[in-house]
């Protein structure tokens, strides 16, 4: 039927790429991401209809635009189809006319990684893989563990020993085999890769360069934003950057819509990192074409504290070609944005997602974004596992005695004073 025929090319220099076993699938000539090419023009009408119709089955409604065969049986937990929320309260406080939150926290394991994991586990099952494994800061691992549970596949997780304990609990709750390891996220990913030889694992670490097939799932965020704005894309898409796959694939989704004539321009892309781990931002600022690895990360935005921005060449090119930018925010700005987004919009964003809201404030103040612009922040993961940060700095909870109305009055008055009422 309409399964696309595809070949792989470098997204930057266009050189054809033979997809063979490799340490990392990156262009040997320029470091660009390796991506499949679909015959969009040849089947223009069909693909336009697919994107205009949207999907009732999450990312699987777009399977003709993913790198899977028609016979693949999805291991699905109803991922995707997340809302694009109008953040009216937050917009007023921050001082911008239109702000949207693409709320990826509503995915089954509470992060955008589910769009990757559903494909990775489905493909692993199709191949007859017994055991998958990955290195992760916690989000990708929780996601993969969830889909492995649903797909009845064994899953090993290597987690840096400094990872957030609530994420470790979530991973174990899905029945995955958790191992903590000294070192960074990247060290864990490398060890998961070594496990392929040692134990016959399949490494499903969530960077495009490790799994170009599953990373295609992130494109659907771009398609959904298109549909949700009636293909009137926001002026800016603001995206957290760890390895870089999320940003580059949302951009790819936009590019597909442009090729199909569904949108007439691609938004400016902003890549956001934490000041305590900002290899991409540093490269952007010195006009480099690839990012050098960062030393030791030091930030509460653990999920994007990748010392290596794997897809940096591609991401840097996207930021420049779309008239976007790269920006870093401090931990105190992240904390403030987390708490603000929770109080204003009832969206609990993890630190690595709150960076987007913090950066909009900063870019407005710096005159990069105009108050008249429209902005979509990608809220990539939930802060429900970061509640200790959410309440940081808040006063202690008052307590009153049994039936002590006077004490209750005093406490209520205190709260009202605090709220400026
Ligand atoms: Zn290349």
Major beta sheet summary: 6 strands, mixed
CATH topology-level fold name of the domain at 84-109 and 215-390: Rossmann fold
State the end-to-end distance: 64 Å
Bound molecules: zinc ion
| Rg (C-alpha, Å) | 22 Å
Q: Order of strands in the sheet with the most strands?
A: 3-4-12-9-10-11
Low-confidence stretches: none
List how many beta strands DSSP finds. Answer: 12
Q: Which percent range fits the helix content?
A: 25-40%
Give the percentage of residues in beta strands.
5-15%
Task: Kindly report the average pLDDT value.
Answer: 94
Described by the principal axes of the CA atoms, the overall outline is globular
CATH architecture descriptor of the domain at 84-109 and 215-390: 3-Layer(aba) Sandwich
What is the N-to-C succession of helices and strands? EEHEHEHEHEHEHEHHEHEHHEHHEHH
Count of helical regions: 15
Structural class: alpha/beta
CATH class of the domain at 84-109 and 215-390: Alpha Beta
Walk me through the structure.
The protein is of the alpha/beta class. It has a domain at 84-109 and 215-390: Rossmann fold (3-Layer(aba) Sandwich), CATH 3.40.50.1100. Helices cover 38% and strands 14% of the residues. The chain has 15 helices and 12 strands. The strands form 3 sheets. The protein has a 6-stranded mixed sheet, with helices on both faces. Strands 7-6-5-8 form a 4-stranded parallel sheet. Helix 8 packs across helix 9 (245-259). The model has no long low-confidence stretch (mean pLDDT 94). The chain binds zinc ion. Residues 10, 12-13, 15, 27, 29-30, 32 line the site of zinc ion (ZN).
């Amino acid at each position: 039927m309409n399964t696309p025929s595809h070949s792989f090319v470098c997204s930057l220099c266009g050189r054809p790429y033979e997809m063979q076993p490799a340490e990392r699938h990156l262009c040997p000539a320029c470091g660009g991401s390796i991506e499949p090419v679909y015959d969009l023009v040849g089947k223009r009408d069909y693909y336009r209809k697919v994107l205009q119709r949207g999907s009732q089955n999450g990312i699987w409604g777009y399977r003709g635009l993913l790198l899977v065969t028609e016979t693949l049986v999805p291991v699905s937990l109803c991922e995707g189809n997340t809302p694009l929320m109008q953040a009216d309260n937050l917009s007023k406080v921050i001082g911008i006319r239109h702000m949207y939150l693409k709320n990826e926290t509503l995915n089954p394991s509470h992060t955008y990684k589910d769009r990757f994991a559903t494909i990775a586990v489905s493909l692993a099952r199709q191949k007859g893989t017994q055991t998958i494994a990955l290195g992760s800061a916690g989000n990708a691992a929780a996601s993969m563990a969830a889909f492995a549970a649903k797909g009845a596949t064994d899953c090993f997780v290597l987690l840096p020993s400094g990872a957030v304990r609530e994420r470790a609990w979530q991973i174990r709750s899905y029945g995955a085999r958790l191992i903590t390891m000294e070192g960074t996220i990247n060290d864990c990913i490398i060890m998961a890769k070594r496990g392929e030889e040692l134990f016959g694992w399949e490494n499903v670490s969530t960077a495009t360069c490790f799994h170009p097939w599953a990373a295609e799932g992130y494109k659907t965020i771009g398609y959904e934003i298109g549909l949700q704005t009636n293909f009137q894309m926001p002026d800016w898409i603001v995206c957290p950057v760890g390895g870089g796959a999320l940003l580059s694939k949302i951009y790819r989704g936009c590019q597909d819509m442009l090729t199909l004539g569904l949108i007439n321009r691609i938004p400016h892309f902003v890549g956001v990192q934490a000041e305590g781990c900002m290899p991409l931002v540093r490269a952007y600022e010195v006009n480099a074409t690839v990012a050098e690895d960062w030393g030791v990360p030091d930030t509460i935005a653990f999920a994007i504290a990748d010392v290596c921005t794997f897809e940096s060449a591609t991401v840097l090119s996207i930021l420049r070609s779309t008239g976007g930018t790269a920006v870093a925010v401090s931990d105190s700005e992240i904390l403030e944005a987390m708490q603000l987004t929770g109080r204003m919009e009832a969206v609990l964003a993890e630190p690595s997602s709150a960076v987007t809201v913090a950066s909009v404030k900063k870019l407005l103040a710096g005159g990069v974004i105009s108050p008249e612009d429209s902005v979509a922040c990608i809220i990539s993961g939930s802060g429900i596992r970061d509640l200790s940060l959410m309440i940081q700095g808040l006063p202690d909870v008052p307590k009153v005695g049994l039936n002590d109305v006077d004490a209750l009055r005093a406490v209520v008055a205190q709260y009202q004073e605090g709220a400026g009422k």
